[in-house]
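hi!! sorry for the late reply, been swamped w classes. u asked for the two structures so here they r. pasted raw, havent cleaned anything up. first the sequence of the first protein and right below it the tokens
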Amino acid sequence: SALSDVPNMEICSLSLNNITSLKVFQHTKKLKELYLRKNLISDLRELKFLVPLPNLKVLWLWDNPICQHPLYRQYCIKLLPNLVKLDSTAVTAEERQYSAQMQISEQDILPTA
């Protein structure tokens, strides 16, 4: 992937690109902001590819099928505890605490479609 050639990238905006997976981002360790609005990401399990990105603070996945999952926001915050903003909304301390305590199984995050 072309992203492996830019390991120092800090901001990435690829909205409206028919992206279906987050795997290509797993090695962009310096990434701070990722904007992927209006793509085709539909599986919450894809978020696991963002776990190795300790600097990721802003994530916009709004208007992807993944956003329709009832656990979308809580799971994002649980899996990516360094987020300060998810889509257009700041992550609150209360949300972070609640999400950290949630027990979410693999079964819970399977696509609902």
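now the second protein. again sequence first, tokens right under
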Amino acid sequence: YLKEIEKAAASEYRPVYFKLKKQYADQPSFYLDVARFLFQHDEKTLAIQVLSNVAEMKLEEASLLRMMANQLMEAGEKQLAIETYRDILQMREEEPQSYRDLALALNETGAYNEAVQLMYTLLLGEWHDRFTDVKSITLNEMNAIISAHPGQVDLAGIDPRLVFAMPVDVRIVISWNADNSDIDLWVTDPRKEKCYYQNSATALGGRISQDVTGGYGPEEFMLKKAVDGKYKVEVNLFGDHRQTLGGPIAIKADLYTDYGKPTQKRETINFRVTTGKEVVELGALSFSSASLAAKQ
């Protein structure tokens, strides 16, 4: 269906979509793929209409709604995304990622207090063993919000021992939409050392979080003092044991320089990988201490 819509002129996207819908109406991945195509071609109104079919199918499939919400965030439709993340939280209160996803989206809209409160709820919660390291990663994110907005976040009721600035030069974090999937983050530094689950601490000081083999992530790489150069970012789809209608796994990657500092920069990448062992190179994060110093 993507090949067919790609061949069409922009004026034909709508009729071609409705023609294809007759054949693929019961496949959620059809709507997700077509919506992504339309967003990429500046057809936002039609893309949102197409994407709404996923929610209207009422499959109670949180993984599909996560993909939908991530696409809405990527397209700048943050309020619609937040509504979807709230629905996911109601469906999956037992999963810490539901709180984290909503909190990160709220932070994007300036709702810092609610974002921090959701993250604090996650930190205090008791979660299944498969959700490893989500608390430590969320602690980093909560403190980054607090540090970035001094005086704007109400810290009443939050244990002061959990509030402290923790800036780093390079941070890369991935999460994905599907449970029972094993996605590995690999980061290769300018000295050609790869940081991953079998080499979780590098000579430069890079650290990677625990390997998540059965949840949604997140997995995180952090380097407090980076050397100049390029940091190659890859993901490895190591295992997929889910049963879902969503098709290929959707992965979200956030690449930061100067994380938790006023000069923080972020690039977000959303992409999908197919089943089977597959290594995908996202690209490279470039770090330059000289350029950051000039901006400061």
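hope this helps!! also noticed smth abt the second:
The longest strand covers residues 229-240.
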